[in-house]
Hints:
The chain has 15 helices and eleven strands.
Amino acid sequence: MGPISQVYYCSFMPIFHGVLLGVNLRDLVTKITVRLEDLSGKSIAIDAYNALYQFLAIIRQPDGTPLKDDAGRITSHLSGLLYRTSNLVEMGTKPIYVFDGAPPALKEVEIKRRMRAKEEALVRYEQALREGKIEEARIYAQATSRLKDYMAEDSKKLLYLMGIPWVQAPSEGEAQAAHIVKRGDADYCASQDYDSLLFGAPKLIRNVTISGRRKLPSKNIFVEVIPEVVELEQVLKDCGITREQLVDVGILIGTDFNPDGIKGLGPKTALKLVKEHGKIENALPYLQNAGFPVEPQRIREIFLNPKVTDNYKIEWREPDVEGAINFICRERDFSEERVRKALEKMQKGITKLKGKTTLEKWFG
């Protein structure tokens, strides 16, 4: 794989072109912008699949081609995982990656819809390449990303070698990450989606894995993507509702488990309905031709009583530098010089920021 300086970082956009991920609570939440430096000493439970998809979408060559090793295996996700995680640790944060398990049965419709969107994007990407429309090709390429089994396994291996803990969720990674924060084993839950709030995450932080300078789609304009914190308690206070009612708002406008929601219903109107009627069942009679393919209670249960586990161990260890070099450089064709610099920067940053003489003291 060529040096990272040759990598083109595509414009920041949703992962699936034309398909909104998660529940759209953007207009209802109060966000507080922070700097990565402000998170020094904080532990962050990161939705791993959410982050890996972002890396696969953003880290590409100018024509939209993802990074690959000499054997043709995609490595964009490993590049993002290595350099972003080392950057986070250099700044004193303590990341924990949480991987998805088996999705709830109700997510099948959304999964199939995303697959159709990917297939459509792939057709448009190949057409744009044939027509020499490189800018369009880059945009469509981002929406074609697929997270294959070997990518998740490679990611877990790299994290282990970097000394970064990861947790395997029994089902939704966001639910498990929220659970880890609720138990006090992490300070923040990190994801681009607002679903974490429905799962009960006390503090959600967005843009952790994609912060920095990003180019807007189809425009020669760059923006600074800044981390932002959303506190569940503040959202509930501002909206004047309970968490259960926030879940109902999400169900009305559409979640991964009922992606269509109520057609034409926005978050503000959904909030008004829930506040006036208390819950979905009481509001439906006032909505013309409104209904759900499944009982709202089944969706509520996914958010309010998700499948999570307490059987995990969070431990930060000293990085196995030579092991990481052997894996990511010898087996995945990364530049050894750049990888060593990233790992050394991570080690020096920990020692400096925490005022410790050894990594063991900080990671213990």
